[in-house]
Specification:
Layout: H1 11-18, H2 44-56, H3 62-68, H4 73-86, H5 106-114, H6 124-135, H7 141-152
Helix pairs in contact: 2-3, 2-4, 6-7
Length: 153
Amino acid sequence: MPAKYDSKRSKNEVLIEEGTFNPSPEKVRDPKFRGSEFFDPHDAVQVKYEMLRRVSTDRVSVTEASDEYGVSRPTYYQAKANFDMGGIAGLVPAKPGPRGPHKIDDKVLAFLQARLTPGEPVRARELAKLVRNELDIELHPRTIERVLKKTRG
């Protein structure tokens, strides 16, 4: 995560922008998070990490830690799985929104591939026009280039 904090923006503004703002800081009951400059109950990544640490190092029960940090037990287990897979970075929430070209299903992909000529470059603008005219779907030429590159190897 790039350091985007500057003197013109508050830490909370940066946390919100990055998707790591804890919307319920009042639920965090760990005393470390009260009146500390270091421990910030608004920082969801830090709160989750400390919750995991409490269970792992301090041997607090999952139920007790979940209550202390204001989250459900399933949230604890999801955070633990994410941390086990990706370390601290695994605690950063994924960006919302589609995870790929959601307009290109198997039918559209087959339509595009049928119009490719082996050995010739992809003419994405022409393909975008064909898709718009024949399938009534708006696709950006760059999206077409990316999906065809991925499927061609």
